[in-house]
Amino acid sequence: MTGKKNKPPARGNQPTLTLLGNQKTVQPETPKPDILETFPNPRPAREYTITFDCLEFTSLCPVTGQPDFATLTILYVPGDVCVESKSLKLYLGAYRNQGSFSETIVNQILDDLVAVLDPVSLGVQGKFSPRGGIGITVEATYPDLDDLADLDLLDDLFDDEEP
Predict the structure, then answer these.
(1) What CATH number has the domain bearing residue 142?
(2) First vs last Cα of the chain: how many Å apart?
(3) Do residues 157 and 125 make contact, with C-beta atoms less than 8 angstroms apart?
(4) Could you list the residue range(s) of the whole structural domain that residue 133 is in?
(5) Which of 35, 40, 82, 133 has its CA 20 to 30 A from that of 48?
């Protein structure tokens, strides 16, 4: 942390967001990182976390075509920019028609968000509902988990306590 004072951004410096407030937005067919929109981090001198919980994430099994359901959690410490939530919702919703294994999906989401955001750190966890009696939880982090050992920033993401 630095001793810099955090001033709120000037109102005239608002980013150009094309999806937020747009009533004619169409759900994309495929998840592409160019769907994701960002805005300037309002407190770049402060390390803080942003968490998104997607309780109704869906995708398709690449073998059977059957739907897979998951709870997806994204937790990150922003760098210079933050992701706009409606664009993230549209990006995640595009997986609904995507046939991929859960391991591929979680890692692709991490890769896409890191490429767009260049965050200090980022973690994605997908808790996929049981099919055939077995649930799958996939966790991916940036930087690598070993690099985060001393930061304790992602402890909440990997909390294994049951509700």
Answers:
(1) 3.30.1130.10
(2) 33
(3) yes
(4) 29-148
(5) 35
pLDDT in tens, 57-69: 999 999 999 999 9
Distance between CA atoms of residues 34 and 122, nearest Å? 19
Active centre residues (catalytic)? 61, 68
Q: Return the C-alpha torsion angle 108, 78, 115, 65, nearest 10.
A: 20
The dihedrals phi and psi of 112, each to the nearest 5 degrees, come to -65, -45
Domain count, the chain: 1
Asked if the structure places residue 162 within a domain, the reply is no
CA 100 to chain centre: 17
pLDDT tens digit sequence for 33-48: 999 999 999 999 999 9
| Single pTM value for the model | 0.78
Within 8 A by CB and 6+ apart from 46, the residues are 1, 6
